[in-house]
Amino acid sequence: MKKKIVKTLAVTTALTIAAASMVGCGNSGTADSNADNKASGDTQAAASDSKDAKDITGTVTMAGSTSMEKLANSLKEAFGAKYPGISVTAEFTGSSAGIESLEAGSVDIGNSSRELSDDEKSQGIVENVVAIDGIAVITDTANDVTKISSDDLAKVYTGEITNWKELGGQDEAIVVVGREAASGTRGAFEELLDIKDKCKYANELDSTGAVLAKVASTPGSIGYISLDVLDDSVSALAIDDVEATEDNIVAGKYKLSRPFVMATKGEISEQSEAVQTFFDYIQSDEGQEVIKKAGLILPQ
Amino acid sequence: METNTVSIIGKKRAGSIVESTARVIFLATAVVAIVAVLSITVYMILKGTPALASVGVTDILFGTVWEPTATEPHFGILYIILTSIVGTALAILIGVPVSILTAVFLAEVAPKKLAAIVQPAVELLAAIPSVIYGLLGLMILTPWMYGLEKKIFAGSQTHQFTGGANLISAVIVLAIMILPTVINISVSSIKAVPQQMKSASLALGATKIQTIFGVVLPAAKSGIMTAIVLGIGRALGEAMAISLVSGSAVNIPLPFNSVRFLTTAIVSDMSYSQGTHRQVLFTIGLVLFVFIMVINLILTRLIKKGEQEV
């Protein structure tokens, strides 16, 4: 009996490991090493390094976009490990609420996953773009449609266009794949196309990986994912004749992208030492690595 | 219970210390389980009822529109509840006959050598993590199902193509997942049928098959019922596997519709939800909890009834 249990356990473990590695492959391999030309804040970071990180004390409070939760939390973690004297707190109340808190002076940083309005800027709020979030629209590799206009894309997702032949492709039904209602990617996608709450999904999957797998294995499907997890198992559509590449997004040509702003009241140089240290950290190689790991694109 | 216990091992005093310590430890471990059940029940009720009050009982339980993040949110979970009920019922309908016949085969019909291969295979099926079922379902079952969907709804203007992620796919995965539970318990209850009963039946001239269906299965009835109820519990509570193959859009549970179960509704939204949306997820949890409790009550009834019969 005991032997049997051991055998069963061994097989189970092997299966689990196999499954884990299968799932794992999809996410790696995109963090390319173009860090060299982006290390603008190197000298500052070096300066604060020499000052001995542990001596700086203070607090950094931020509030705002729920989409930036992953970025804010990973920055908070990595920063906290290096500067134990500075306590960072983050709340996720929504972009506009975050900027309001900043205007009211209750937080140091207002997180916003959209560009600041002129009105907000006139209040003395400074837009510090720390990262750019890009969304790729994907199809299975056999699909011969390679581009789509943003109007047509909106129609596909609202159920007005249901066959690829209407988009110049084969006579194949469109399987509309998306994320669950509370997903940040879905929120951004629907907001950028102005189709919030109007989408008719055939599949609402709860992770980027699931969307990728579903689209890769389903002929005629269409889905959206964060740009950083895009791989060869699917093909990305050009939106309004613009390819989904980092360069196009940084240049601001690609429609499905949005800036992640960590806004401050007044220039960064006017902030407290703790807040300045935080922004120095974001600009350092380490900080930029954290941003890339969170699946985001570095602004130029 | 302040009686003096006397140990036959060692001196009286040493023995009684061991005895009393052991008693305290046993009591403590028993309390852990009771506290866990009670606190979960209290927590689910506390967390699940506020949304019922703020949104309205009928709006949640009998509403059919699920738009939790819209500017005017709707939290109707009727289709989600129906999906769980219909999906579980269909899975049982497919899984149970297969399981019982397999159990009969293993316990009565199969040659010893063959049973020695099949039995561990069934046990291994129980040990496979549910996400693996989902993964295989996603990679193998849904593409195949999509082919079928395309044939059936060819040229249809109204059908929304789901790429094979639909109620049937979920039901098939669930049916396979309940197999080991139902088979293993059925096998033990069939094996527990006294040999005399079978011998008597055979001696009266009944064939082996007649004996199995006329004597063995009726005698093992309460054990098999227990197996089925446990299978229902497993199917109702499964989330991981079916979240990958059911499509997870909220629709009426029709065979080729993309559907969302109670469990997958919680899993898919929990990580990002907030406010009333999150409270409603707890309400869904409460509904699921009530379902599971009802099933467990039925189970204890069945076990008691079985004990009385024996």
Automatic annotation (TrEMBL), chain A:
Q: Where is the signal peptide?
A: 1-23
**What broad class describes the main subcellular location of this protein?**
membrane
Q: Name one Pfam family in it.
A: PBP_like_2
Can you give the residue ranges of the PBP domain? Answer: 57-286
- UniProt-recorded Gene Ontology molecular function terms: phosphate ion binding
Give the subcellular location: Cell membrane
CDD domains, sorted = PBP2_phosphate_like_1 (cd13653)
Return the Polar residues bias intervals: 30-43
List GO terms (cellular component aspect): plasma membrane
Residues annotated as region Disordered? 30-52
This protein's membrane topology, according to the annotation, is: Lipid-anchor
GO biological process terms, alphabetically, are: phosphate ion transport
Keywords, sorted A to Z: Cell membrane, Lipoprotein, Membrane, Palmitate, Phosphate transport, Signal, Transport
The UniProt function text for this chain reads: Part of the ABC transporter complex PstSACB involved in phosphate import. Involved in the system for phosphate transport across the cytoplasmic membrane.
Record family assignment: Belongs to the PstS family.
Self-association state and partner proteins as the record states: The complex is composed of two ATP-binding proteins (PstB), two transmembrane proteins (PstC and PstA) and a solute-binding protein (PstS).
Name the chain's protein. Answer: Phosphate-binding protein
What high-level taxonomic lineage is stated for the organism? Answer: Bacteria, Bacillati, Bacillota, Clostridia, Lachnospirales
Automatic annotation (TrEMBL), chain B:
Domain spans labelled ABC transmembrane type-1: 77-299
Q: Which UniProt keywords apply?
A: Cell membrane, Membrane, Phosphate transport, Transmembrane, Transmembrane helix, Transport
Pfam families per record: BPD_transp_1
Q: Which residues form a coiled coil?
A: none
Task: Kindly list the biological process annotations in GO that this record carries.
Answer: phosphate ion transport
Q: Source organism's superkingdom?
A: Bacteria
Tell me what topology the record assigns in the membrane.
Multi-pass membrane protein
Q: Name one GO cellular component term.
A: plasma membrane
Span-the-membrane segments of this chain are 21-46, 77-110, 122-147, 167-190, 211-233, 280-303
In Gene Ontology terms, what is one molecular function of this protein?
phosphate transmembrane transporter activity
Q: Where in the cell is it found?
A: Cell membrane
Briefly state the protein's biological role: Part of the binding-protein-dependent transport system for phosphate; probably responsible for the translocation of the substrate across the membrane.
What family does this chain come from, according to its entry? Belongs to the binding-protein-dependent transport system permease family. CysTW subfamily.
UniProt protein name: Phosphate transport system permease protein
